[in-house]
Design a protein that fits this description.
Shape: elongated
Number of domains: 1
Number of strands: 2
Structural class: mainly alpha
Mean pLDDT: 87
Strand content: 5-15%
Radius of gyration: 15 Å
Helix content: 55-70%
């Protein structure tokens, strides 16, 4: 079964923060790279936890929600409503 779901902006913002932290790894020396890698992994873990929590609470397929969140970050111009992302997602 599937249903239309509006993807919360908070999930998109967390994924964007994780992507931004990862992008900052480029060009860093060893010590700076190690510290930034840790920040990148922490941001990614926070994003993943938020996706998992929302999927569980809303009864959604976690992988489908994660893919939609990542799509929203990579292609913000594809927002389907004036308020943001709304997609048909499978239930658990």
């Amino acid at each position: 079964m599937i249903r239309s779901v509006e993807v919360p902006a908070g999930l998109i913002k967390r994924q964007q923060a994780a992507d931004d932290a990862h992008a900052q790894l480029r060009g860093l020396d060893s010590d700076e790279h190690t510290a930034q890698w840790k920040r990148s992994r922490e941001a990614a873990a926070e994003s993943q936890a938020a996706v998992t929590e929302h999927a569980t609470d809303a009864g959604l397929n976690r992988a489908a929600l994660e893919a939609t969140v990542k799509e929203a970050v990579q292609h913000p111009e594809w927002a389907s409503t004036a308020h943001g992302w709304c997609r048909w997602l499978p239930l658990r």
